[in-house]
Amino acid sequence: MPWSPRAALLRDLVLGVLGIAAFLLDLGADLWAAGQYARDGRYLWAALVLALLGLASGALQLFSWLWLRADPAGLHGPQPPGRCLALLHLLQLGYLYRCLQGLRQGLLAWRQEAPSEFDLAYSDFLSLDISMLRLFETFLESTPQLTLVLAIVLQSGRAEYYQWVGICTSFVGISWALLDYHRALRTCLPAKPRLGVGSSAVYFVWNLLLLWPRVLAVALFSALFPHYVALHFLGLWLVLLLWVWLQGTDFMPEPSSEWLYRATVATILYFSWFNVSEGHTRGRATIHLTFLLSDSVLLVLTWVTQSAWLPGAAPLQLWLPVGGASFLLGVALRLIYYRWLHPSCHWEPDGVDGARGLLPPEHGLLPRNRRASQLARNFFPKARAEAAVLGKGDVNGAL
User: Fold this and answer.
1) Which of 116, 171, 234, 274 is the most exposed place for a label (fewest CB within 10 A)?
2) Which pairs with CB-CB distance under 8 Å and at least 24 residues apart come from 291-295?
3) In Å, how far from its chain's centre is CA 115?
4) Distance in angstroms (rounded) separating the CA atoms of residues 36 and 42
5) In this structure, what are the phi and psi dihedrals at residue 62, rounded to the nearest 5 degrees?
6) What is the DSSP letter of 375?
7) DSSP class of residue 79?
8) For residue 362, what is the DSSP state?
9) 202 phi and psi, to 5 degrees?
């Protein structure tokens, strides 16, 4: 049965609290690991953990601050002064502020017997920004941290208890971000077709099955050649950044800040697939999958020829076939998802981002998150009939 508005708000409140808890748990695990490395005299490892944490947090705060500045005046109602908001983001608290703001708005709407359309739309507006920020944080921090800790474990030949905690919290953070992002994009659909548990589960599983073999391949290369992995990442990242730029993205409010988004997407593409433009999705997804598979195979081949360098190489003889099987199963589930479970919809002309600041509420305009709507257009295909009228060769979002 479809969720009632109040039940959906309560569900979103619970998911929001759990999301904040998962974020803080992952952050605490990273700081704990950095402290342990420093105490054991592994200062380079501690510095790498803190560097990844700092770079990801800085990018996250910058996204949040730029989006807040671009939103129309009056959209968010009473807020702290601009200097206070800037200070919050400078202290790396902007993301948590947004999470608390989303929980406050959700609780305000849930307390109403019959929440107004405006309150529901504004709650969606806030939760969509939070979901996008959480996804960016996942691929800028959680996934690289997971790769780093696996490389350290492979290089040292053993895993400490705090490393296991870090591995588990990273997997929880990645899993939560993928599920939350999939759920959030659904709210951007014009007709909001029902996405069942099975659809979300298949989407989550194929993403995870394709992600962890990539993480394992990069971790193996990092353990063998720790001085060259930065060059490998930089080389591929520049190629992917060029590819994103050639697709003509227009996501951020200003052209100068668009490069922050392109750099973030290039980092995501280093590990997984992320669609940034409409049309020809099948071809771009196939090119990206082939490119990533070829690179991962080359990275693994370096381990096969140099496996004597790593202590405890016997378990890796099992990990590689399991990783290959995981990749094939992930591709199969990805095809199943896009063939039978991925919804199609007719998209209306693009609305105004945060329309509340442009006309008073009595004009009937509701807040609309243009940023998330643009990503949803890239993620969900148009209806088949509409695609036929437009003469497109393939369905946007379908693999």
Assistant:
1) 234
2) 292/214, 293/327, 295/217, 295/236
3) 30
4) 8
5) -65, -45
6) H
7) -
8) G
9) -65, -40
pLDDT by residue, tens only, the chain of 399 residues: 456 677 878 888 888 898 899 899 999 999 999 999 999 999 999 999 999 999 999 999 999 999 998 888 778 777 888 889 999 999 999 999 999 999 999 999 888 888 888 888 888 899 999 999 999 999 999 999 999 999 998 888 788 899 999 888 888 888 888 888 877 877 776 655 555 677 778 888 888 899 989 999 999 899 888 889 999 999 999 999 999 999 988 899 888 899 999 999 999 999 999 888 877 778 888 999 999 999 999 998 887 777 556 665 556 677 788 889 999 999 999 899 888 877 665 544 444 334 333 333 443 467 888 888 888 777 775 544 343 333 333 322 222
Q: How far apart are CA 239 and CA 229, in angstroms?
A: 16
| The model's pTM | 0.87
Is 241 in contact with 263 (CB distance < 8 Å)?
Answer: yes
Sequence-distant (6+) residues with CB within 8 A of 120 are 5, 9, 109
8 Å CB contact between 352 and 365: yes
Q: What pairs with residue 345 in β-bridges? A: 382
Q: How far apart are CA 347 and CA 392, in angstroms?
A: 15
How would you class 53 by CB atoms within 10 Å of its CB: exposed for 0-12, middle for 13-18, buried for 19 or more? buried
Return the structure tokens found at 329: 């199963």
Instruction: Residue 135: name the closest of 240, 214, 60 by CA.
Output: 60
Nearest CA to 115 among 126, 107, 104? Answer: 107
